[in-house]
Amino acid sequence: MCGIVGILGKADVASRLVEGLARLEYRGYDSAGIAVADGGRVELRRAVGKLDNLRVAVDAHAPRGRVGIGHTRWATYGAATEANAHPHRFGAVTLVHNGIIENHAALRDEVEARGARLTSQTDSEIIAAQLEYLLRRARTLDEAFIALLDKLVGSYALAVVFEGYPDLMFVARNGSPLAIGYGEMEADGSAEMFVGSDALALAPFTGQVSYLEDGDWAVIRPDRVQVFDRAGRGVTRDVVSITGVLPAADKGPWPHFMRKEIEEQPESLARLLGALVDPAAGSLKPILPGIDFASADRIVLIACGTAHYACLLASYWIEEIARLPVEVDIASEYRYRNRPLTGREIVIAVSQSGETADTLSALKALAGRVAARVAVVNVATSSIAREADAILDILAGPEIGVASTKAYSGQAMGLLAIALKAARDRGMLSDDRLGEILADLVSVPRIVAETLCGSDDIERLARRLSPARDMFFLGRGVNHPMALEAALKMKEISYIHAEAYPAGELKHGPIALIDTGTPVVVFENVDDLNEKTASNVAEVAARGADVVRIGPSGACDLVTPAAGPVGSLFANAVVAQLLSYFVALEKGTDVDQPRNLAKSVTVE
């Protein structure tokens, strides 16, 4: 949620700030703004709505200056208005803030009791007012900034500029990600410096970044960066290269990022397969070095949203193949449960961005309490990846569309590989059985590509379903998580009320919702559960439902390519993604940035 970009440049920075914010649009936002410092003066430009509105405000009267900060806001405290948009200025302090300040009410009372007149409803302006007050009582900027951080309770990523202090920026992070980018050094020892919420925002400007840790704060000047930890000790954070790691985040010939990312799945899954499987040897490549499942007594999978459904799918594989008990928890619930631990659990945290706040907090809370903590992520330098004991990078490349597509399929494939490793570690998987599963797994990029070739049929089906106000998705076994994921996709981008159930659960209540013409989408199994599913389909059809069966058999309404049990699940995922996409197009919604949603949920 929200995005920060900052530049200490050699020339005017306004246009580049907007360019950096454009790279952060995928995170979700409802207003945006920039602040540019020119000597002793700071000018603000802010706008509600899409970034194009900010561009109009900047182009109409471009602020001049070599130092600036920018922000895309996703509303928390206060509605989406220009007054609540960032940056916020109070006196000599101008700042942008990601996160949530939990003690904002008490801090607001403090500043208002001193006579401060706040112009927004945000917790962020309160930070600026507090810092302005502390500046007038401190001997140095450092002293005032430290005193500010001591007062804040909650999550924050901050970038601050001060009137009267050219070529200077203060930054800090606690619970919200923040990276520093290093430009090329000039002959005089100076360089352009950059700040961003993630590497994607910094990629147009530099290939060298360092990631602040929780509790870090830093003073950035053109000739040096000083980083301090929570205790005020000077620390060094490694500078890593992102050159060549981040492909261009543009739509190419596709009308939406979501469609582009759906179409990229044969390539992204083949890339991941290359890291997981040695097809010539018919074996799994070494993954998760140092993690041994032999002595584990259970696996705990924690995630949110789409990643949670990938975990539910993986639970079937892990229990069946590795014969290990599995618990699947929503991270926002798990972190607050006081549950007993044996110390022999292996915890797997799954997150596309690697910055999901609830998942990160749960992972941190388990440090030293379980046998191992594994991260399945799409950003190997993310906070969750750095916190974990081992990582599996799904190698999907940047995913910009809010509705996860190629990341979901990559998470599913990565988790299946972990299930296979766990089974081998525990001696539960014969060579023959491993060969069968790997042959099925290796077919996935081809199956996905063939499914994509049937997009015209899926589009026709979408036109048939798009008038619906309610929709139901059914599945049994491994197709129950698939139904949940399909319903989520439909809700996210088409705004149709969609629910998912195990097919056998209908008669226990939900069938009361079935009426004449209600769409019921059924994912058929490539196993012996199909006969039971067929009886459930008959029950809803008898009540007038518009039943749509999806699967590889010729009797289905939408026939997917012939595939094994693994390949068929990935085919179903593509159908679910395209179906929601085409329904959203029919309804005219914002596919890539659906209302009220953010790509990376970095606050509770």
From TrEMBL:
Its main location: cytoplasm. HAMAP family: GlmS (MF_00164). The lineage of its organism: Bacteria, Pseudomonadati, Pseudomonadota, Alphaproteobacteria, Rhodobacterales. GO terms for molecular function: transaminase activity. Residues 287-428, 461-594 form the SIS domain. Catalyzes the first step in hexosamine metabolism, converting fructose-6P into glucosamine-6P using glutamine as a nitrogen source. Keywords: Aminotransferase, Cytoplasm, Glutamine amidotransferase, Repeat, Transferase. The active site is at C2, K599. PROSITE patterns: GATASE_TYPE_2, SIS. This is Glutamine--fructose-6-phosphate aminotransferase [isomerizing]. Gene3D superfamilies: Glucose-6-phosphate isomerase like protein, domain 1, Glutamine Phosphoribosylpyrophosphate, subunit 1, domain 1. Its EC number is 2.6.1.16. InterPro entries: GATase_2_dom, GFAT, GFAT_N, GlmS/AgaS_SIS, GlmS/FrlB_SIS, Ntn_hydrolases_N, SIS_dom, SIS_dom_sf. It catalyses: D-fructose 6-phosphate + L-glutamine = D-glucosamine 6-phosphate + L-glutamate. Residues 2-223 form the Glutamine amidotransferase type-2 domain. The gene is glmS. Homodimer. It is found in: Cytoplasm. It holds the Pfam family GATase_6. It comes from the Bacteria. It is an enzyme of class 2 (transferase).
